[in-house]
Amino acid sequence: MLLKTGGRMYAGDLSNELGLTEMAIRRHMYALESEGSVSIIAVRQAMGRPLHAYELTAEADELFPKNYHLLALDLLDELADDPDTAELIDRMFEGRKKKLLERYEPRMAGKSLEQKVSELAAIQNAGGYMAETEAKSDGSYMLYEYNCPIAQVAGKYLQACSCELSLFKSLLDVPVVRTECLAKGGGKCSYQIG
């Protein structure tokens, strides 16, 4: 919090603010650096060894509260409330699906269904979906998503879910059926593939 509000700080500054020794501050900062949350910058002085300053990395920004879903919902609600623009919601979700398809289709090229399912799980995990797969004895697969990073939007605008299902069908090039949906009260999103 101190680095977020105060910007770049030195061990002495943090020590005074937190009531910890400078050695304890350095240990904490090295741990935060190894996590990717803090950068340690050597600041040259006229004489002697450089001082070390600490600042947050771009990755650390994700540790602070975000309300993107409120912005997205407000914007979608604006479109939905006006009969002249309500149809744009479907177009926006279709446009998003098209962009995702263009982004991920090359990652599927030349792969077996098993490899595609594994790649899809990797894509979804990178997006925060906590996905895992299961191979079935009949040659089909299950994809389970235990988290939905767009749950607030998907709960109100089911176009998000239908576009995701359509995206999966296009990427995998086999039938895909959603058997459970978080946005509709399920414990996870489950997809039967093949």
Quick rundown:
With 194 residues, this protein is of the alpha+beta class. The protein contains eight helices and seven strands.
Describe the structure.
The protein has about 190 residues and is of the alpha+beta class. The chain is built from eight helices and seven strands. Helix 2 crosses helix 3 and helix 5 packs parallel to helix 8. The protein is elongated, with a radius of gyration of 23 Å. The mean pLDDT is about 95.
Query: Quick one: how many beta strands?
Result: 7
Percentage of residues in strands: 15-25%
Coarse structural class: alpha+beta
* Number of continuous helical runs: 8
Q: Write the element-wise H/E pattern from the N-terminal end onward.
A: HEHHEEHHHEEHHEE
**Distance between the ends:** 48 Å
Pick out the low-confidence regions: none
| Strand arrangement, major sheet | 4-5-7-6
Write the layout of secondary structure elements.
Blueprint: H1 2-6, E1 9-10, H2 11-18, H3 22-35, E2 38-43, E3 51-56, H4 68-81, H5 88-104, H6 113-126, E4 131-135, E5 141-145, H7 151-156, H8 159-172, E6 176-180, E7 189-193
Antiparallel strand pairs: 1-3, 2-3, 4-5, 5-7, 6-7
Q: What key phrases describe this protein's structure?
A:
single chain, 194 residues, alpha+beta, four-stranded antiparallel sheet, 18% strand, elongated
